[in-house]
Amino acid sequence: MKILVASTNRGKIREIADILSSADVTIFTPDQIVITVDVQEDGATFEENALKKAAAYRDVAEMSALADDSGLCVDALDGAPGVMSARFAGPNASDADNIERLLKAMHKMQNRKARFVCVVALALTSGELITAQGDYPGLITEAPMGSGGFGYDPVFYDPTTGKTFAELCQEEKNRVSHRKRALIALREKLQNQGYIKP
Amino acid sequence: MKILVASTNRGKIREIADILSSADVTIFTPDQIVITVDVQEDGATFEENALKKAAAYRDVAEMSALADDSGLCVDALDGAPGVMSARFAGPNASDADNIERLLKAMHKMQNRKARFVCVVALALTSGELITAQGDYPGLITEAPMGSGGFGYDPVFYDPTTGKTFAELCQEEKNRVSHRKRALIALREKLQNQGYIKP
């Protein structure tokens, strides 16, 4: 049995551990627990999901918290899979399942335009909420190419490098990251609003 | 500005830190945050306060949690100061203030019997709540004696050692701890109910 001691008083913790620790009981202290907040990412938009997660962490940690949500938006599919990106082919879909469903949905479609989208949300302790979005445009291939990355990377073709995201090395991918773009946009907002110095 | 990143993904955390860290911004990760749960100890009994605190920590940490509440109960004052022990002389009362108020309230009283009481509460993840109480009897002196301990220790006379708790060394005090008695009672309950081996 694992027991968390609801105290930061060292003397009290030692007294409790002395008496209760045994082969059956392991005593944990608050500084050994990593905060995990279960948030259902069931929002209608990336922004909604990111805000929900950031606010939940802020409330538990009593500290300004940053969260993100991201996915793939395909023009010809009216922005789908969007917030459903991770579960496009079902609740426990693998990357391969999701890719298969996407390629079927886009079979013989001419317009292959798509974007990776990331929204970052900052929930401040003051209650204020700040969000920023980053997009990276590309094209959906007819078949997967490359073995790197994850998610839809093997079918996301980047015209700038002439490769799918699964064919890019981590460093190249970081350079074109939609999350990076969102974070840079957030940094600018924080600077403009005087939260941080330019 | 301190910002908690609502993620345990190392790559994501690094990307965020790279872009947002600055002289103004310090990035924290969930494993750097010590859980602190603000619980109003406003219950009518030690048990109520201990249960409230244990349940709050259990809910945040999603782990069985143990909390305690304790105080001094004086027979001639119908158990007061009891749950008000820490704020007997007011919301921000010092130990000296509380002792002064106690000695005034007991001025010329013959019956000096009192008990230090501790209730420990274990809130299990199953939802079950287990509590146990430990008492240590003594007598309230006419004036403070000794400089050790804290709270009401200088006016709590222990007939077994012939000293006030403020005159005992830490080791002697641990031996007669009301919290220790509560923990031993809890351990017995856990053994009897099959949660841990005898």
What's the end-to-end separation of chain A, in Å?
50 Å
> pLDDT average of chain A, as an integer?
92
**What's the assembly state of these chains?**
homodimer
CATH topology of chain A: Maf protein
Q: Name the overall outline of chain A.
A: globular
Count structural domains of chain A: 1
Largest interface, chains and sizes:
A-B, 52 and 53 residues
Helix content of chain A: 25-40%
Radius of gyration of chain A: 22 Å
Instruction: Give start-end ranges of low-pLDDT stretches of chain A.
Output: none
Number of discrete helical segments of chain A: 5
Using DSSP, what is the number of strands of chain A?
Answer: 7
Secondary-structure-based class of chain A equals alpha+beta
For the largest beta-sheet of chain A, the strand count, sense and barrel status come to:
5 strands, antiparallel
Strand line-up across the major sheet of chain A? 3-4-5-6-7
Q: Write the H/E string of chain A, N to C.
A: EHEHEHEEEEHH
What would CATH call the architecture of chain A?
Answer: Alpha-Beta Complex
Q: Name the beta content range of chain A.
A: 15-25%
